[in-house]
Write a structure and sequence with these properties.
The protein is α/β, with parallel strands linked by helices. It has eleven helices and ten strands. A seven-stranded mixed β-sheet has the order 1-2-3-4-5-7-10, sandwiched between helices. Strands 6-8-9 form a three-stranded mixed β-sheet. Strand 2 and strand 3 form a beta hairpin. It is globular and about 65 Å long. Bound molecules: acetyl coenzyme *A. Acetyl coenzyme *A (ACO) binds next to strand 6.
């Protein structure tokens, strides 16, 4: 699509003093939204401002968007939480873990819930989210990739759930999708050793849908977006809803749910 036709919204999804810290760019082109972590010089390290920016994008995403691509500028998808959080000075305007430790525990839990909101919306049935992952996806970076429905990765990808090595737990919504993708034993192995998962293993254990050469990542994502947009929008939403609910339902319950969704589809198509 010609540049002129591309609808660009949002620019940097930041405002106020935290802008430079958030470093998240949003572009919307018709049914496709692209979110870019844009602090390549800091390997797209994430702060609370990043997560607020992501949450705001989720809240204001135009209704026509069907596919959301999440990518990182530069050599790494994201090197995880900004390590300044571990220093006494912290991230300007956003505090540090030392200051959080001195605050009421409930306050910090609430802050974590707000941060998680930046990740959770990526699973909405109305959209399909794709993480385009190259280089390092560490800690919060790994969890951001896990927050997406699909992961297309470059052959230099290295996933690492580093939190336990730093005395923390992964708390940005990553534990459930990790277990669901790779199983409990493998998730324990990956998290409790904080080891690196490279492209071949990521593909083998179901973390990645596709591995491509680094230079082909954008093209591979474009191909997937085209495929996803080729199906009926309302059927896609209903089908994602069904698939998401499948694990928690019995076969009988799932069959009932299929019937309900299909009756609604038939009504919409032929009623
Ligand atoms: N937070 C803040 N700054 C970072 C981070 C980070 N997480 N990661 C990298 N940077 C900065 C570096 O300080 C450096 O800045 P400088 O140029 O001003 O010195 C710049 O990004 C480039 O980093 P390098 O280390 O030089 O890049 P390299 O490609 O050699 O290594 C790597 C990349 C492996 C990602 C390395 O930077 C690294 O290990 N980063 C820390 C990863 C980490 O422990 N993250 C926390 C995980 S836990 C969690 O997310 C909750």
């Amino acid at each position: 699509m010609a540049e002129a036709q591309a609808q660009q919204r949002g620019g940097y999804a930041d405002d106020g003093p935290a802008s430079a810290e958030g470093g998240v760019r949003l572009e919307v082109d018709g049914e496709i939204a692209t979110i870019t972590l844009a602090r390549p010089d800091k390997r797209n390290a994430q702060t609370f401002a990043t997560w607020s920016a992501l949450a705001r994008i989720g809240e204001s995403l135009p209704e026509q968007v069907r596919v959301v691509v999440v990518k990182g500028e530069g050599p790494s998808f994201s090197a995880g939480i900004d390590l300044r959080m571990f220093t006494p000075e912290g991230v300007p305007g956003q505090g540090s873990f030392s200051s959080a430790a001195k605050s009421d525990g409930a306050d910090f839990e609430q802050r974590i819930r707000q941060a998680q909101a930046g990740f959770l919306w990526l699973r909405r049935p109305e959209i399909v989210s794709i993480a385009a992952v190259q280089g390092h996806a560490i800690g919060a970076g790994f969890q951001l990739a896990l927050a997406c429905d699909l992961r297309i990765v470059a052959d230099d990808v290295s996933f690492c759930m580093k939190e336990p090595a730093l005395g923390l737990v992964p708390d940005l919504t990553g534990t459930k999708p990790l277990v669901e993708l790779v199983g409990l034993a493998k998730a324990i192995d990956i998290c409790l050793t904080a080891r690196t998962v490279h492209a071949d293993e990521a593909m083998r254990i179901g973390l990645a849908e596709r591995v491509v050469a680094g230079g082909d990542l954008d093209q591979a994502v474009r191909e997937k977006v085209t495929q996803l947009l080729s199906t009926n929008r309302d059927a896609a939403v209903a089908t994602k809803r069904l698939l998401q609910g499948a694990r928690a339902r019995t076969l009988e319950e799932q069959s009932v749910a299929e019937g309900i969704e299909q009756a609604a589809r038939i009504k919409a198509l032929f009623g």
